[in-house]
Specification:
The protein has helices at about 5-20, 25-30, 35-50, 210-235; strands at about 60-65, 70, 80-85, 90-100, 105-110, 125-135, 140-150, 155-165, 170, 180-185, 185-190, 190-195, 195-200. It is an alpha+beta fold and about 240 residues long. It folds into two domains: about 5-55 and about 205-235, no CATH class; about 60-200, PHR domain (Jelly Rolls, Sandwich). It has a six-stranded antiparallel sheet with strand order 6-5-8-3-10-11, with no helix packed on it. A hairpin with a 3-residue loop joins β10 and β11 (about 185-190). α1 (about 5-20) crosses α3 (about 35-50), α2 crosses α3 and α3 runs antiparallel to α4. It is elongated.
Length: about 240
């Protein structure tokens, strides 16, 4: 909606208000030009804001957090186990959940794509973070909040992996269709971890044209208030 359309919409809103009921407010608004101007300015302001402020996308969680069928076991260096996943929105990953079956300090890695690109290598990691893992039992989940969010693009694959001799709860085969367990940073296996990934949309920022709409609404409201104040002073 452009500025002219906002004015038309504002005038239409006022016209409808005059036809609704026979309340004293509508009659006073019809007879008093100052109230009429304020109605139009307020309606235009609201119309501008509704068009200028962008909507908010919704956070999405992906993965599988049901029962485990077994635990993953890493028995040889580099003792790495992880999970690939496909982003469903463009935004940032802010936390994950997993089911550790042992306690210890580990390093969490994130990679672009389904693995690191080289077996046994974490050199291409886009994020690393030290984490303290806890044995949460056969049905528990541990939430890991990322120190630094990981940017993701809808439809693209990513992988998180842990580099330590700790086992994790595994899901029934193909419980999560858009990824796999990844061993040794780059070896996919036809199974999935019990996991979830929280994706947050980016914070919407108004564009220049949207800021112009907001400013226009503010100016209309200020002009109406100034006009009413001057008329009161003249009386």
């Amino acid at each position: 909606m452009n500025l002219g359309e906002s004015l038309v919409a504002a005038t239409s809103i006022f016209a409808r208000s005059e036809r609704v009921g026979r309340g004293s407010l509508s009659r006073r608004a019809s007879c008093n030009p100052h109230i009429r101007l304020c109605w139009i300015a307020a309606a235009a302001f609201a119309s501008c804001l509704s068009q200028a402020i962008p909507g908010h996308a919704v956070a999405q969680t992906i993965g599988y957090v049901g029962p485990s069928t077994q635990d993953t076991v890493t028995t040889s260096p580099p003792f790495s186990v992880g999970q690939s996943f496909t982003a469903t929105i463009t935004g940032e990953v802010t936390q994950i959940q997993v089911r550790p079956r042992a306690a210890g300090t580990d390093t969490l890695y994130f990679f672009n794509g389904a693995g690191s690109g080289a077996s046994g290598s974490s050199a291409t990691a886009i994020r690393t973070q030290s984490v303290a893992l806890t044995d949460v039992g056969a049905n528990g989940l541990q939430t890991i909040v990322l120190n630094q969010p990981v940017p993701v693009v809808a439809g693209s694959q990513y992988t998180f992996a842990f580099n330590g001799a700790i086992s994790f709860g595994a899901a029934p085969n193909n419980s999560y269709a858009d990824g796999n367990i990844v061993f040794n940073f780059n070896t996919p296996v036809a199974a999935d971890l019990v996991f979830s990934v929280l994706q947050q949309p980016p914070t919407p920022i108004p564009t220049l044209s949207e800021w112009a709409m907001i400013l226009f609404g503010v100016m209309l409201a200020a002009m109406a208030a100034g006009h009413v104040q001057r008329k009161r002073q003249e009386v």
